[in-house]
Amino acid sequence: MRMRKSNLLVLSLIMMVNVFMAACSEKNAEGADNEYPKKPIEVIVAFNAGGGTDVAARTILNFTEKHAGTSFAVINKPGAAGEIGFTALAGAPTDGYTIGMINPPTTLLHPIQRPDEVKYNLDDYALIANIVSDPGAFVVNADSPINTLDELFEAAKDGKLNMAYGGPGTSEALTLRRTEEMKGIEFNKIPFEGTSPAVAALMGGHVDVLITNASEIISQYEDKKIKVLAVGSDDRVDLLPDVPTYKEEGLELTQVSMRGLAAPKGISKEQQEFLAEAIRKTMEDEEFIKKAKEMALPLDYKGPDEYKEFLENYNNELTEEFEKNPW
């Protein structure tokens, strides 16, 4: 039986509509897949809950949620001076729903010092943004007769000055080693697990000097229980505007501990840029800036490209130092 022309036309229209609808469905599905984020994002913190990195992460991410349109769930993976968490981050799924805090130079030092044992390196991360750059600081008790770095170095010439620090392999250990080389002195170095017991030892008169991060002794400084001799940043910091830098005091060194966000290598460029932009907006959020000042967080935003370049140069510098003289 021959089909009439009108029926053929109707059939053709139906087929065209079906093809069009199928294409639309496919496009919508693709569009839905491109929507990011569609669920909460997990954030690995390589240190204990309540510590400096954990508090900094929870604070900024709480403000970032409104800029990212999703929530962040902090997952603490402490142990081995951060190595466990840094390793977990490097090996996490690359779907954009697991990111983490990194803490240069500590994050960089593990693979430099034990390249055959540590299961990650800087190349395993897609860098999102730096958030905080916390300068190091030489600190003495408020009653100490030492008031400047020159006086500190003079007092250290007999090798009996007790210096509290974070222990071998840390950025503090590197700064002390380089200071000893530059000034021809030697500290009696006493390691502490964390800043709190070291500060207690300093205020109790059990050690003479402490080297630590500036943000971690602000409350004692404001209460006039300690004196900060100098800070390790290139320029003076807002937290301690009257305190000179190491370089101003004749010590040609910088010492800065950074806290930033990274994802495992393999995350899409779009997701990386989305998260970096959400952090950038947070850093310009007046409410967050006010909160950061209350918490003495020295903010220092670096986007993905700037952060990557900075850390690659920093990693090379640390590698050269370690090859020259391990600490």
Can you describe this structure?
The protein is α/β, with parallel strands linked by helices and 327 residues long. It has helices at 5-34, 52-68, 83-90, 106-113, 149-155, 171-183, 195-203, 218-222, 269-283, 286-294, 304-324, and strands spanning 41-45, 72-76, 98-102, 125-141, 162-165, 188-191, 209-213, 226-231, 256-264, 299-302. Strands 1, 2, 3, 4, 5, 6, 7, 8, 9 and 10 form a 10-stranded mixed β-sheet that branches. Helix 2 (52-68) crosses helix 9 (269-283) and helix 4 (106-113) packs across helix 11 (304-324). The radius of gyration is 26 Å and the shape is globular. Mean pLDDT is 89; it is low at 17-33.
How would the blueprint of this fold be written?
Layout: H1 5-34, E1 41-45, H2 52-68, E2 72-76, H3 83-90, E3 98-102, H4 106-113, E4 125-141, H5 149-155, E5 162-165, H6 171-183, E6 188-191, H7 195-203, E7 209-213, H8 218-222, E8 226-231, E9 256-264, H9 269-283, H10 286-294, E10 299-302, H11 304-324
Parallel strand pairs: 1-2, 1-3, 5-6, 5-7
Antiparallel strand pairs: 3-9, 4-7, 4-8, 4-9, 4-10
Helix pairs in contact: 2-9, 4-11
